[in-house]
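Suppose a colleague, Dr. K., hands you the sequence of a protein chain of 985 amino acids and asks what its three-dimensional shape might be. Before reaching for any lab equipment, you can write down a predicted structure in token form. Begin with the sequence itself:
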Amino acid sequence: MIRTAMASALILLVLCSATFAADEAQSYTRRTWQMSDGLPEQIVQAFAQTKDQYLWIGTSGGLLRFDGAQFVLYSRDNVKALTDNNIFCLTVSTDGSLWIGSEGGGLIRYRDGQFRSFSTADGLLNSFVRAVYQDSKGQIWVGTDNGLFRIRNEHLERFDNTPEIPALAVHAIYEDSRGGLWVGGSRLLRLTGNTSSEYHFSGGYSQNRVKSIIEGRDGIMWVGTVSGLQKMFPRSTVARFTRVEEVHGTVRVLRQTTDGALWAGTVGNGVYILRGGHFTNLTVHSGLPSNTALNLFEDTEKNIWIGTQAGMLRLSKNAVNTVRLPDASEADAGTIYEDHNGDMWAASAHLFRLHDGKAVRVDTPGISARIRNVFRDSGGALWIGTEGQGAIRFDGKKYEHYTTQNGLVNNFVRVFMQARDGSIWIATDEGVTRWRPNGLTNYQMHDGLCYFSTRSMLQDRNGDIWIGTDRGVSRLHAGAYANDTVTEALKEEKVWAIHEDSEGGLWFGTRTGGLYRWRSGKLTRFTVANGLASNSIYEILEDKKQNLWLSGPDGISGVSRRELDEIADKGWHPIALTLYGVSDGLEKTQLYGGEKPAGVLTNRGEVWFPSSKGPVRVAAAQSTPIGRLPVIVERLVVDGIQTPSAANISLGPDNANLEIHYTVVLLRSQERVRFRYKLEGFDSTWVDASSRRVAYYTNLPPGTYHFRVAAFEMNNPADISESSISIAKRPHFYRTKWFLSICILLVAALVWGIYRLRVSQLRSRFNAVLKERARLAREMHDTLIQGCTSTSALLEAYSSMRKDESGAPGELLNTVRTQLRSTINEAREAVWDLRHQTETATSIVPLLETMAAQVSHDYGVPVEFESSGKTFDLEQSAANELLMIVREALYNAVRHGSPSKVQISSSFEHGKLTVSLQDNGRGFDPASDIASQSNHYGLAGMRERAKRIGSTLTISSRPGAGAEVTILLPRKLFGVTEKTAGIEV
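The predicted structure, expressed as tokens, is then:
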């Protein structure tokens, strides 16, 4: 019974047809934006496009700027001029200004990045702006709920409410081809100069309020009203509008697109499109977010934008059409196939035949399992593969059912292939079966198959059978498995597609490893790094122009095989690849490739692939690139703070994190756009950013950088646009050149100072040694030499005495002995002073007095001493030096001057001590170098001692007039204690 029902089904082909979608929306790709996609609110009611290609969108939640991928919101929260977020209308004037009409916030102009509002002070009497229009003369007209205004010299002048032009509320303004200005709202007027003509419609006043006006290319005037659409033919004998019965509801907006179609957006009834004299209606069932269409706009790329109460819709011309299968689930279709009779088959939960623009379901009673694939062999027999019920062969008369029970390796069929010998190869979930009329032969892992889960199969021109599995590829050569470079290289890959090109090259598509080419003993791999859209390849097709068509999770790609061959033979360069994805009608569509055939190139040149929405058809032609994309460095984020983009950016020394955001202004889908960037001075090579639109840099060292970003479309990689900015990061002050220079100078100065200090120390030590030597010389001169000199003089006197002189020789010897003892004691005291530097206080007066008496006694010359003033003690070292100076001067006087009298005096005054010595001897010339001539160093020693204690030594003398020596000591240097008595001798 099942066999009879099955045969009847396949013979009769009981049809259940469904036409290809014929409504207007089928020729467009739809993309919807709502609040979840970035809109501030759902209501979208205005569009405009400025010269920089940005799309401006007026919503009830603010003004949006759109580059095709990202929104920038301007609202009362961040723009002072916007006092109300409800944007009702938008217009771009010829000078590039964007005019913004708000519902309650008045009129705003955006120019050169600045917003300027017009208020009552500028002549605007009503803040509900419904229309802004620029006529052919460049005049800006503004329609409000209370009047028509014209802008002159930055001021608004009311134009209605005159005897010639009655007052009215204005919702629409339009200039016709004859220069007449149509103004609609509470009335419909045509203005010519300062005069007006009013037009009336049939019906009540409340039903005839005007919402939109347009003149078609054929001269027909169209007016949208609350009650519907009105039209008036040009040059009609009676200037009267008639109602268009096909359009229902309030016509909120009228637009004519570049292809000549008239679009009418209504409140509650969707969008009507007049094309070729016939209206079609787009509603929520055709993909509109809402049946209330508030605005319509066609951009420079010929996308149609529709603003509704529930978001906005973009319609873009399709390159891909999806055929909806009747009674098909979301999991359909799995495979697509064209037999040699030209019949198109689609396998899904059911079996369909595509014929004459219809999807025809083939009823298959007796098969409860899902249909995986269909195949017609060279003998005309039809094979059907199922999911769990094996394979069915129908030759037109009888059927044969093959399952595991009668020899099939597995009941889950994935691939059918006919070899040149006529045998049918059936690949399944657990191996491969070869069918021949005389029986079945199975090939499994224990026979040498690389893996049991098969995905693809092909017989090459050499007769070898290639079997792709989920873990490698096997090659059957002359009935035996052969290993080679390909099988070794692909042993870990999931090989889902195998194709042989017209020149014998083999192409292998893998699930995650990209595309492989095997030719002339060389295996080449292509991945996304080479420009592929995805590393997952479901199917590979080749058309007559030698273009490869690849399906995958990201859509359908078209690429020249010749270009891939050139890359494999000569080296890498960017691939010109056309991707058909979301922008071409594959939104929310999943392509299939788990079973074969997962794509077909028909005899008519159409490319078909199975998808979750049904079979998709691609026009086998490369899409036309739009040229260079306007790439823009949009903004910078420095340590989380947004900074406007500029040609030159300066970063502080503490700025650590830098984000550079860039984009292109492309209002159609940007899925084909690819970016790359380079920070010259930091990046050594270009960074492939794919579709990512931000570059991140952390802890850039101080310096000057040049950021470059390039954008191109995948199908036109040679046409690259580029933008750049300069970035300078300032160093910390301690890393600046001037600081480092100062540091170097300071280090050099420090080294020089240390050197000078060391030299100074060495010199000081050397001078100290010299001073010590000089002091030793002075001490020897003033003690030993002076004592020895005195002793020598006494001994000479003794030797010259006569022996008969009584008493004198003995007395003289006693004096010699006394002098020797005194000299020895002085030498001992000098040695003691050298070893012990004590600083006890000493009174100089008794010492001077004793010295005067001693010298007077020794030399027989009267030496007088006197002291005046309030005495004070001296430090011992100073007293000793002073005493040595006086002693040297006294000895010089008695020995060399032959004086008859010597006077020594000390004068203690409040701030100083003055010691002087005067003699009446023969004197000398102080300027003469006595020391060098006579080998005497008395005067030099006196000067050195005076300098050492900081005193002033004055020597006054001339030959024949005696001599005077004066020593002046400041008391502040040497005074210790004071005494009252003054001694006078």
